[in-house]
């Protein structure tokens, strides 16, 4: 084998190894996700691109206020915020979130949104008001809401989200580049 053909073969092997690593990482650990729609505005805008951590929830459980991507239908994935964990009762009264009868502050919502939209940002509800199979979040399920509460198809309409349907947690916003950020 000549020196040139050996060098070409080394490059081919390197390229194959890199491709294999990329396929494994994208398949099992991380995924690209492009946001469609306005249900997470102003936190996440339509057209932004995110990196989704697919392995994290195999190691740990989702936490309240995580941004998750899940399979909503066979054709569509949604991104929403975890509000209720298994065993929680959820209520919204006068734009205040109550989890297990305790008010919780939602720092991620801009305080001026309700003031500028004319009226309540989140319509009052309790789990008893919604057409759900249980008045508390069942085991293996989550209650999720979009940050744009007036324009979001979420657990109020689609019901609880099963753990098995979760794709992963949104970790990084990378597009547009000017908005690059780690998502908490």
From TrEMBL:
PROSITE patterns: SPASE_I_2, SPASE_I_3
SUPFAM superfamilies reported for this sequence: LexA/Signal peptidase
Membrane spanning stretches: 12-35
Signal peptide: none
Gene Ontology MF term list: signal peptidase activity
Entry-linked CDD domains: S26_SPase_I
Keywords noted in UniProt: Hydrolase, Membrane, Protease, Transmembrane, Transmembrane helix
Broad class of the protein's primary localization: membrane
Domain Peptidase S26 as annotated: residue spans: 9-175
EC class (word): hydrolase
Catalytic activity: Cleavage of hydrophobic, N-terminal signal or leader sequences from secreted and periplasmic proteins
Protein name: Signal peptidase I
Organism for this UniProt entry: Geomicrobium sediminis
């Amino acid at each position: 084998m000549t020196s040139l053909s050996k060098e070409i073969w080394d490059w081919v092997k390197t390229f194959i190894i890199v491709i294999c690593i990329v396929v494994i990482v994208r398949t099992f650990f991380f995924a690209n996700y492009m946001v469609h729609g306005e249900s997470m505005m102003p936190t996440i805008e339509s057209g932004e691109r995110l990196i989704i951590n697919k392995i994290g929830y195999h190691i740990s459980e989702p936490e309240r206020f995580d941004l998750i991507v899940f399979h909503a239908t066979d054709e569509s994935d949604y991104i929403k915020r975890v509000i209720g964990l298994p065993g929680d009762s959820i209520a919204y009264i006068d734009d205040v979130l109550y989890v297990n009868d305790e008010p919780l502050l939602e720092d991620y919502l801009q305080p001026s949104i309700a003031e500028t939209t004319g009226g309540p940002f989140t319509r009052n509800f309790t789990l008893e008001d919604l057409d759900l199979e249980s008045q508390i979040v069942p085991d293996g399920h989550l209650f999720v809401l979009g940050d744009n509460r007036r324009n979001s198809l979420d657990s109020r309409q689609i019901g609880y989200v099963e753990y098995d349907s979760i794709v992963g947690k949104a970790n990084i916003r990378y597009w547009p580049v000017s908005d690059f950020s780690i998502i908490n």
